């Protein structure tokens, strides 16, 4: 994973672009690269070396005049080299280079051939193409400056104060000067009525195993983020099985306010069960509050849910990076795909349940994907997300919603996923973890985190400020003192209206209390979930 910056216009100062690119050096602390094309366009790259540690320096030139920069991982790069691109000569052994060769061979019509996560820019003379992966796992922003030059960057901070207008690049699209924006990712499951496939537990299980296998591609040590919840525990279990005979040691990491945090206690059981090399990280509420301003600068959002959950993830990522780990697996996406948030239990019908899962998956780029990427990349750590694999999404999202609806099974959310991995003959997880109740990450680190954070933020904002919030912040006006506090932090770093408009707030549906904490849902029960709750 890396940071990219490209500016396509005349009379661009390379030194200025290099300086702006360095604002993202946390994304790529290993090396930097810059290319000025014959037309005067600039490509810049901050690299985190994970695949091909020696020759994969970017920008990368194709066989002719095209150059490219890429942030992400292309998991099918070997298959593309051996088949579609078997007649091409490559300069590196890394995954990124296939992008520029596909452009040279197919023109614009190649982006959907990529299996992976990515944001990239290819420049060829006066022509160029920019693309972002199907779900938006990797961030990308675009804008124009007062001279008309187009800017593209992994993070908003590299272009916000140089563009007159800017926005988030839409996931699943590519852009060219000839076509404008084109949606290349158009799966059938975007239409709720296409969810007609009966549940196939074997197919669901094997699809997630394969999605995890792809994401073990690395030339550096591998770790897993292990919260003790279902999603991260499953990906950890699968990874442990896949590398069992490789001689590698799987490193697992958990975080909480103290040793009694709900997530830490569950994660301990999983780590012991899997035999991972396990590490626990602790942080205090005071430490969390102290880094909020820096955190908002990294996250580039004022969304309450994202900030609450990103704080422990930020501390955890720092500790992992300090141990020399560069890549980790994470469980993002499962709650959106399977309706795992507690409010889904209040869905009025299977049709509405399915529509909400689609909406949540399509907005992951503004929520959990943004949080996972920017919290980890703040410390040069790459997070990989098996639940958002294209093939797995097809399997899971085309399933009839009745099979996934939590309310059908007495409140056991993600029942169908749990059932797929409930294999007593060769168990993936301890029984009590497999059937544990959902805890949102910001809750699971310790309930005091959110409670004290709300109290602190409320003390920083007066009633008068809340009364005038709409005039000061007309875009996404904050409705609580906590939201106002985060908005002010964001405004100090990113005062532009364009910046405010890039943020989408995470708000639960179908529940009375609109606080995004899972504990605000009336179905939340503290002790945890028992398998007997499901009438199998």
Automatic annotation (TrEMBL):
Keywords (A to Z) from UniProt: Amino-acid biosynthesis, Asparagine biosynthesis, ATP-binding, Glutamine amidotransferase, Ligase, Nucleotide-binding
Pathway per the UniProt entry: Amino-acid biosynthesis; L-asparagine biosynthesis; L-asparagine from L-aspartate (L-Gln route): step 1/1
Binding site for L-glutamine: 95
Chain segments carrying region Disordered: 516-536
One of the protein's GO biological processes: asparagine biosynthetic process
Name of the featured protein: asparagine synthase (glutamine-hydrolyzing)
Entry GO terms, CC: cytosol
Record-level Gene Ontology MF annotations: asparagine synthase (glutamine-hydrolyzing) activity; ATP binding
CDD domains, sorted: Asn_synthase_B_C (cd01991), AsnB (cd00712)
Active site (UniProt): 2
Domain Glutamine amidotransferase type-2: 2-180
Residue positions binding ATP: 225, 255, 330-331
Keyword ATP-binding carried by entry: yes
Enzyme class: ligase
Catalysed reaction equations from the record: L-aspartate + L-glutamine + ATP + H2O = L-asparagine + L-glutamate + AMP + diphosphate + H(+)
Superkingdom to which the source organism belongs: Bacteria
């Amino acid at each position: 994973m890396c940071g990219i910056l490209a500016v396509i216009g005349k009379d661009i100062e390379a030194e200025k672009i290099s300086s702006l690119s360095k604002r993202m050096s946390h994304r790529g602390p290993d090396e930097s690269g810059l290319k000025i094309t014959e037309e005067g366009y600039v490509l810049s790259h901050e690299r985190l070396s994970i695949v091909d540690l020696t020759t994969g320096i970017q920008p990368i030139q194709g066989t002719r005049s095209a150059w490219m920069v890429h942030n992400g991982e292309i998991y099918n790069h070997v298959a593309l080299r051996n088949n579609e691109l078997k007649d091409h000569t490559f300069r590196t052994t890394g995954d990124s280079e296939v992008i520029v060769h596909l452009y040279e061979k197919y023109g614009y019509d190649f982006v959907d051939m990529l299996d992976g996560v990515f944001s990239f820019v290819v420049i060829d003379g006066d022509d160029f193409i920019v693309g972002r992966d199907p779900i938006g796992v990797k961030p990308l922003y675009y804008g124009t400056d007062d001279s008309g030059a187009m800017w593209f960057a992994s993070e908003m901070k590299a272009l916000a104060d140089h563009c007159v207008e800017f926005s988030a690049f839409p996931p699943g699209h590519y852009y060219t000067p000839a076509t404008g924006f084109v949606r290349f990712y158009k799966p059938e499951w975007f239409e709720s009525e296409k969810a007609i496939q009966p549940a196939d537990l074997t197919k669901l299980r094997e699809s997630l195993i394969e999605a995890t296998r792809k994401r073990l591609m690395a030339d550096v040590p591998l770790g897993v983020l292990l919260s003790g919840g279902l999603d991260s525990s499953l990906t950890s279990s699968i990874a442990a099985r896949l590398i069992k005979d490789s001689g590698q040691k799987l490193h697992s990491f958990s975080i909480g306010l103290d040793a009694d945090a709900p997530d830490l206690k569950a994660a301990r059981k999983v780590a012991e069960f899997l035999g991972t090399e396990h590490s626990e990280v602790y942080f205090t509420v005071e430490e969390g509050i102290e880094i909020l301003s820096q955190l908002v600068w990294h996250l580039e959002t004022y969304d309450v849910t994202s900030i609450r959950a990103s704080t422990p993830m930020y501390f955890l990522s720092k500790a992992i990076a300090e141990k020399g780990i560069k890549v980790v697996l994470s469980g993002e996406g499962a709650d959106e795909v399977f309706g795992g948030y507690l409010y889904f239990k209040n869905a009025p019908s299977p049709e509405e349940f399915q529509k909400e899962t689609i909406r949540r998956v399509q907005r992951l780029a503004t929520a959990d994907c943004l949080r996972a990427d920017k919290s980890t990349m703040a410390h040069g750590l790459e997070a990989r997300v098996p639940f958002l694999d294209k093939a797995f999404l097809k399997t899971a999202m085309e399933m009839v919603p009745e099979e996934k609806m939590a309310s059908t099974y007495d409140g056991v959310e993600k029942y169908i996923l749990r059932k797929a991995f409930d294999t007593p003959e060769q168990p993936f997880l301890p029984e009590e973890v497999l059937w544990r109740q959902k805890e949102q990450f910001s809750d699971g680190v310790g309930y005091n985190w959110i409670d004290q954070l709300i109290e602190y933020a409320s003390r920083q904002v007066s009633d008068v400020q809340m009364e005038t919030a709409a005039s000061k912040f007309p875009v996404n006006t904050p409705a609580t003192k906590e939201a106002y506090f985060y908005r002010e932090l964001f405004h100090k770093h990113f005062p532009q209206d364009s910046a405010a408009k890039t943020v989408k707030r995470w708000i639960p549906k179908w529940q009375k209390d609109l606080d995004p904490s899972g504990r605000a849902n009336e179905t939340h029960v503290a002790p945890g979930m028992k398998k007997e709750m499901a009438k199998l």
